[in-house]
Amino acid sequence: MTDESSFEAFYRQTAAPLRAYVVRVIGSVAPADDIVQDAYLRLLRAPPPIRDPVQLRAYLFRIASNLIHDYWRRQRRERDLSERDMSEPNAVNPDIPLRLDMARSFEQLRPQQRQLMWLAYVEGADHREIAAALGLRERSVRVLLHRARRKLATFLRQRETGSGEPR
Amino acid sequence: MSDERDEELVAAWMRELAALPVETPPLPDPAYIWWKAHLLRQWDAQRTVIAPLEWGERVQVATGLAGAAVLLVLSSPHLPTIATGVLVLTAALAAGWWRQSSTG
Q1: Nearest CB to B17; choose among A19, A36, A106
Q2: Which of A28, A36, A138, B44 has the CB geometry, 3.0–4.6 Å to A131, for a possible disulfide?
Q3: Cβ of A29 and B24 within 8 Å?
Q4: Does ipTM come in above 0.85?
Q5: Contact A30, A90 (CB under 8 A)
């Protein structure tokens, strides 16, 4: 990606899915936009020797995942102030109960589980790609993804039957 | 069997979640990001060029201060205690200045 027009084409293809990933995983819009912009800046500031757009996209998601981790680290430091901000429902229209409900259901998962689930089910990434994006081992991804899936499924069933949140 | 049902349930739910529009302001213009990255790259390149010059400047100032201190000591043989004090003070100031400019 050496010229502005190729960057623009890449940006138009990737910006919306990247923002959706970051917003859903961290559950807040404003910091998500900062993370997305920062991810592109890092990509352009030190461009990797990657020509394949698919690999470049995976690399972009890896940068964003690292920035998400940095964001969570900062949040943990300010935990006492930001406990509520972490689940700030800005990511959705609060006046539409279904959306809010779905966003809250997703937030029942741990942050890493949200990343795993989004990359696997929305981005369609395989275990190897998820491992690369999140800095995990491929074998660990299989196990963690299985746990996340089971936890979300349990929660969804309990929600349907109205028996509360999972442990 | 249970895993398969989980898989179906979760996959359908995730699709539904992904399809929900996220109410966000419009994405920044790619030209703006390109321009900002260009400025940052220029700034990085500038820093790389300037870094040795800044380091040389610090060495220059430190050498000047040390030389001035030595001259002071040599020109005031009757005040060795004061000269030593000035030397120590100069060294301390130089060290403080060095640290400050390194972190800043």
Answers
A1: A106
A2: A138
A3: yes
A4: no
A5: yes
Residues 23-82 of chain B with CB under 8 A from chain A are: 23-25, 27-28, 30-31, 33-34, 36-38, 40-41, 44
Determine what percent of chain B falls in helix, strand and coil, rounding each to the nearest 5: 85, 0, 15
- Any chain B CB within 8 A of the CB of A153? yes
Upper half-sphere CA count for residue B3 (Cβ side, 13 Å): 4
Please say if the pLDDT value at position B102 is more than 80: no
Comparing C-alpha atoms, which of A23, A41, A43 is closest to residue A33?
Answer: A23
Task: Give me the residue label for tokens 């640290």.
Answer: B99
- Least confident window among A129-133, A161-165, B11-15, B66-70: A161-165
Question: Residue B38 in 3-state DSSP?
Answer: helix
Reported confidence tier of residue B35, pLDDT bands at 50, 70, 90: very high
